[in-house]
């Protein structure tokens, strides 16, 4: 997939594109993107997406909701859905000032060569969010592109939305988030050096540096899958919290501050992952964060957590090798 970061005229000759921020790339987003891919095949043109690196609210309202997916994850998911080219825009003051017509003429048609445009039912664009699907259709009749507006998508009787998934993730309900997203919720980050406490306990961990703008699941212990940069997908136990059994660092309270940790213990694995980027999928919430009376009690509980995680992995594998999950 080609990725562009500037709306240069003539990036694509002809395309069918999907418009949106697409945080989480949930089933509602997948319908919009899927329609663009379908139209691209029908028209014999490039399947594209136009999105933003950062949430538009960061500029328009002075704050941004925490994200379900950073741009690297969204790009990977776009490609998995059949997208061939993505334009990633920075939401700047200049872009904000573009009228809906200017946005369509300069970016969607001028840069991306749009012959088909797919949007969500509530998509707005241009200065003061004045543009919508109805205006797109009027401009399409003039500028020679078709418009496809997707309807709401429901899972378990409720509308699928990024805010719904955010609420589930924050409240440790990662299994429910998997159902809504159609895949496990995942964090991506670089493995950095920690204090080595996990190794001393007999359970070495990969400590992840997470983007400050991405939602981290609520404090607790989870079963999951670690996806390594070499393509291996390995079962793991993930701890999200502040290690209350140990004394906090000077200047950091037990309740958190900047010390929130995401520690990943990959089962039956003891390789050096420092400075590599990994993704962890959260598949099940095992228990809340706890403070133990001592190191031995903590070690016993971690061993029990690993056994529960193994049982869940073995059950989900349904006969597959027990040290690996499908991609």
Notes on the protein architecture:
Residues 249-258 and 318-327 have low confidence and may be disordered. The chain has a 6-stranded parallel sheet, sandwiched between helices. Strands 9-10-13-12-11-14 form a 6-stranded antiparallel β-barrel. Helix 5 crosses helix 6 and helix 7 packs antiparallel against helix 8. It folds into 2 domains: 2-155, HUPs (Rossmann fold), CATH 3.40.50; 168-317, Riboflavin kinase-like (Elongation Factor Tu (Ef-tu), domain 3), CATH 2.40.30.30. By secondary structure, the protein is α/β, with parallel strands linked by helices. It is built from 10 helices and 14 strands. The protein has helices at 27-43, 57-60, 71-80, 93-96, 100-109, 133-143, 162-170, 174-181, 197-201, 295-317, and strands at 2-4, 15-19, 46-52, 85-89, 114-119, 146-149, 154-155, 158-159, 185-192, 206-210, 220-227, 233-241, 261-266, 277-288. The radius of gyration is 22 Å and the shape is elongated. Strand 7 (154-155) and strand 8 form a beta hairpin.
